[in-house]
Structure formats: C-alpha cells, structure tokens
Predict the 3D structure of the following.
Amino acid sequence: MDQTERKITKIAREVSKFTVQTMKEEGIGTAEFDFIHLIRHNPGITQAQVREQLKIDKGAAARRAASLESKGYLYRKENPKDHRSQLLYATEKAEKLKNSKTSIEGIFYEWLLSELPEEEKEAFCRTLDTLYWKCKNQRRAGFVDVARLVEEAESEQEDGK
C-alpha cells in the first residue's frame, strides 16, 4: 500500500499547473517549453531529431520551431552535413526562460513551506534530500530494484486472478 498516497506527485502536479499558468502569461505553453528544454540540452539538434525525441509529427514540430523562432527563443543554422536541414539552438532569452521557470517553482515551494516551524521545515528538507538521492541513484543503476518490484507486483496480480 502506498503510504504517501502519491502526495509528492500531487504536489508536483500543482506546482506544475501554477508554473504553466504563469509561463502562459509570458506566451509560452508546456509543449513549447519542452521543445526549448530539449534544444537547450542538445544544441545543434535537428528538427527531425526533436520530432523523434518528443514524439510529435512533422507539422507540429515545424509550427513550434517557427513560433519559438519568431518569439526569439531559438535560432537556426544551416546543417553543414545536410543542406536540406537546419540545426536548432536556444537563444539567451530561452536560457532566461529556464531561470524563470526555476524561479517560479522556487517561489511556490517557499510559499508551501512558509507556515511550517523552522525545525519541521529542516527535517522535511533533509528527508526530501534523502529520498531524492535514493531516486537518483536508482535511476543511475537503471531502476533495477524498482523494476523488480513492479514485476513482482504484476506477477502477484496475475496469480490472484
């Protein structure tokens, strides 16, 4: 039984909703932010590679790229290996957007913790840090332990049918 009742996920979802709402006021939607994020982490990526990684169709990728270019969040350079395609790069404005998102989330989390007594807040943050590093290390290990638990749970469900 999940003792957390997925509350970490639910809190993160609420923060995300607020962040999206705030970013929309800046003219950026979730899909566009994902597009920018991918380009920021993969400078010089092609539009075809963006399509593959984000699992979007050719038209959607072209529209998003054109929109973000017109808004000043990305620029294109000709691909020297294939003159038919272009390489995508994030602009300084895109970098500031990342900082804006981080700032918005930080403000929300500060607000969320603001009414906790300092001692509780510190203990909670230590616990979060412990959980974060457990997750991070599990991911680095390929999620082997968690995947095994999922398989066991599925096997038990099949046996119970």
